[in-house]
Write a structure and sequence with these properties.
- With about 250 residues, the chain is of the alpha/beta class.
- The protein has one domain: Rossmann fold (3-Layer(aba) Sandwich), CATH 3.40.50.150.
- The chain is built from eight helices and eight strands.
- The protein has helices at about 5-15, 35-45, 80-90, 125-130, 150-155, 165-175, 195-205, 220-230; strands at about 30, 50-55, 70-75, 95-100, 110-120, 130-145, 180-195, 235-245.
- Strands 1-7-8-6-5-2-3-4 form an eight-stranded mixed sheet, sandwiched between helices.
- It comes from Phytohabitans flavus.
- This is Methyltransferase type 11.
- Pfam families: Methyltransf_11 (PF08241).
- One of its GO terms (biological process) is methylation.
């Protein structure tokens, strides 16, 4: 059996580029939302002329679509992810642009029939509305308020939920940008971490869970969680997700 130090070192050494979570196989699990986001965008992308994926990460999800539209574009803010995304989306003819999460999108107005985004850091609703063609849709799976709170509080103590992640506020922001919300679904999903190495890697990869996380700063908390996992078999947390579709008026 690996020691605490060995497990921590494994989690600290694992690469964090892209959004490929295969490293967690056998070490952590998370329930999937019931709506099947990848399947949904795969079906939608096959029916449009121009599609855009905002904050694509390494392009791993977009790369699964079975049929790409004639024009396919993606944006990503983190340079290491940009290079991964370009490799992953090249077979689909996708073009990846390096764009800050809070920046304007580098496209003319009414450029896309469909804009998608999985777990965006933030959503520029004004920009989504601007680049959508009349009748076009924005389809996004977003991180809900209080997601992974159990893990955050195990490291940091009690923290307030992020009101920006509340679904009501998201709907209001979409409508304020002139879009109509036509679908909204929510899910609470169980996640289990079976060793402390998986926790370390997750906190390095999903950096907003514990902002500023480093192994040295949280070593005592990590050791306590390691002991808890050893005694209970897993550390359990819950992710919150919601699916939103907002449509631009046809005229």
């Amino acid at each position: 059996m690996s020691t605490f130090e060995e497990l921590v070192d494994e989690g600290a050494a694992a690469p964090v580029e892209g959004w490929d979570f295969s490293w967690f196989a056998g070490r952590a699990t998370e329930e999937r939302p019931p709506w099947g986001y990848a399947r949904l965008i795969g079906g939608r992308m096959s029916t449009v002329e121009a599609g855009l994926d905002v904050q694509t990460g390494g392009g791993e999800v977009l790369a699964t679509i079975p049929t790409a539209p004639p024009r396919l574009a993606a944006t990503e803010s983190w340079p290491p992810n940009v290079e991964v995304a370009r490799r992953n989306l090249a077979p689909l003819g996708g073009t990846v642009y390096e764009v800050a999460d809070d920046a304007e999108l580098p496209f003319p107005a009414e450029s896309f029939d469909l804009v998608v985004s999985r777990h965006p850091v933030l959503t520029r609703w004004d920009e989504i509305a601007r680049v959508l063609r009349p009748g076009g849709s924005f389809l996004s799976q977003q991180v809900g308020s209080g997601t992974m709170r159990e893990l955050t509080e195990a490291m940091m103590g009690p923290v307030p939920a992020n009101p920006a992640r509340e679904t009501g506020r998201t709907v209001a922001a979409a409508e304020a940008a002139g879009l109509s919300v036509v679908d909204l679904r929510e899910a609470t999903l169980r996640a289990e971490f079976f060793d402390i190495g998986a926790v370390v890697h997750f906190l390095r990869k999903v950096i907003w869970t514990v902002p500023g996380f480093t192994v040295e700063a949280y070593r005592d908390k990590l050791r306590a969680m390691h002991d808890r996992i050893h005694a209970e078999g897993a550390f359990v947390a819950y992710s919150r997700r919601f699916l939103i579709e907002a449509r631009k008026p046809a005229s």
